[in-house]
Amino acid sequence: MNILIADSGSTKTIWALVQKENTFQITTEGINPYYQDKQAIIQTILEVAEQLKDYDIEKIHFFGAGCSNKTQQNKVDSTIQVAFPNTQIRVAHDMLGAAIGLCKREEGIACILGTGSNACLYDGNNIIKQAPNYGFWLGDEGSGGNLGKKLIIDYLHHDMPKALRQVLQYTYQLDRDVILAQAYRKNFPNRYFAQFSKFLKEHLEETYAQNLVANSFNEFFEKYIKKLAIKWPLFFVGSVAVSFEEILRSVAKNHNFNVVLTEKDPIEGLIQYYQQEISFHK
Asked: Domain count of the chain?
């Protein structure tokens, strides 16, 4: 049996062809049905299909950002069917993929801190409760997009240390009109702003950077974790969780939560999970 798994965020998609003992991974651009039309998604899917044309794929599990409702799930499902017409396809939110990959069959609070953010209660089989997230402009606290947005707002308003502001401007050759165009007229504004989280990581010795990150993480706990109302262990996935792990663990401790695990992405956990499924069926 060949199972294809996709862990798809707004920035990148990791595809893993899972067999009983072997795996094969492909990385493509991120897929998000909120920001892309079907044709753009199909182009990415066809790229994957071409690389996997020699494999008979029986099932595809696609866990994607922006796939939180049936409309968006159906949009992605129909594009995958173009390239894999005879394959059993399941499209679900990336939050479920993160929960399975992190917790596998254990209870826990699964959290995403990457380009976007989210959190849920996972009982070892299903998501039983999820705090609402309203996307980049109205939510995503704690995410790379949110960190970058806060940084650029402070840059525009001169609300950051002067020397650090000069370094930021020089590093990215920032231009007000370009920033506004990326924010309001271009696709994937979250991806654009998330790039600036790297600047915060590189200047984490600055009190300003430490406070900005900690404040964003505190907002994440207030708006998502605390509203789940259960103090289960925390499992985090995403580049932001890994890059700022020390601050994340400190903020969690201040809120009386224990961080069990941080991973850059959930793909290895998903591979292990579905390899067990293959072994069980055989």
From this structure: 1
Instruction: Please name the residues in contact with 274: beta carbons below 8 A apart, sequence gap of 6 or more.
Output: 3, 5, 18, 61
Q: Is 42 exposed, middle or buried (0-12, 13-18, 19+ CB in 10 A)?
A: middle
Q: Which of 280, 274, 185, 262 is closest to 2 using CA atoms?
A: 274
Question: Residue 281: which pLDDT band, with cuts at 50, 70 and 90?
Answer: low
Model confidence pLDDT, tens digit, residues 38-80 = 888 999 999 999 999 888 899 999 999 888 889 999 999 999 9
Domain that holds residue 68: 3-95+266-281
For the chain, what percent of residues have pLDDT higher than 70? 99
Beta bridge partners of 108: 122
Is the pLDDT assigned to residue 180 strictly greater than 80?
Answer: yes
Cα end-to-end distance, the chain, whole Å: 9
Q: Look-up: residue for tokens 């062809």?
A: 17
Instruction: Quote the DSSP letter at residue 125.
Output: S
Model-level pTM? 0.84
Q: How far apart are CA 23 and CA 275, in angstroms?
A: 9
- The pair of structure tokens assigned to 176 is 């007000």
Scanning the chain, the segments in alpha helix (DSSP H) are 38-51, 70-83, 94-103, 135-138, 144-156, 162-172, 176-184, 189-194, 197-202, 207-220, 226-228, 239-243, 245-254, 267-281
145 is a domain residue: no
CATH number assigned to the domain comprising residue 51 = 3.30.420.40
- Do 263 and 237 touch, CB atoms closer than 8 A? yes
